[in-house]
Design a protein that fits this description.
15 strands; Immunoglobulin-like; single chain; 7 helices; alpha+beta; four-stranded antiparallel beta sheet; 2 domains; 37% helix
Amino acid sequence: MDFLKDLLPRTARAWGFWFILLITAYLFYYLLWPYSCCDVAYENARWSSSRDPQDVPLVDGLKVLVRAPKWVADFIEREVEVSIENTTDEPKLAVVTLDAEPGVGRAYIYDVDGRQQNTLTFRDIQPHSKVVSEFRVRVSGGQYGKQLRLRFRLNDKPLPLGYVVDPKFSCFHTLSLWIIRELLLPPGSNGSIPVFVTIVYYPAIRALVKRQGQSKVEVGGWKKSGAWVVSILAWFLREGDYSEATVRCVGKGSASITIAGPEQESANSQNR
């Protein structure tokens, strides 16, 4: 419980400071480069496409596109996405079969409903429309770097060689992608950011003051129009957990904040 008391702000102004940091963190993460970089890196590291979308042949009037994971593992199921477009003028039935060749352990294939079967059935695909579904694949007993060869059939007819995909077995890469998806991308990131702000920002200030009694923070490189940010920071610290917080100009475009913790405040009072 003492840890939680040190972790959380104690006063209304301290909570206000935490809230401003939280809003700033959200804006920084989603509007600047962190979120877009994580999203692009995740998609690039996640999928391997069977075909260039511009070079997909027709099979019985159906255009089939497959995306398989680059990595598979034994502790999580990975998606194999199947997209079918009906290019004809009449409804179509499509049955896609996924076959896993032996050689990298035992492969378990599930349909979109979680049943262990290697077929997807698309009924009444309307003319000039597209449907998307997915298999889920898990591999037991694999070895790092070994390839799992996946082949596809449409209405029991083997698809061309270009539809053969070879994901590799790697628990490390699979776990890394899972962490990115669950913690750094929505909706998980919406909970990770407040936790990050709570654990890192506020206790950092508290620890600095506790350790040194009185601390001075130099903030340099500010544009003239940004000096108000430093003033707001001092305002929230003053009469909060740190009742002494002052701001002074150090030089052109720079400022310093002096903050004092409770022990230093008591000492200052006795000296007076």
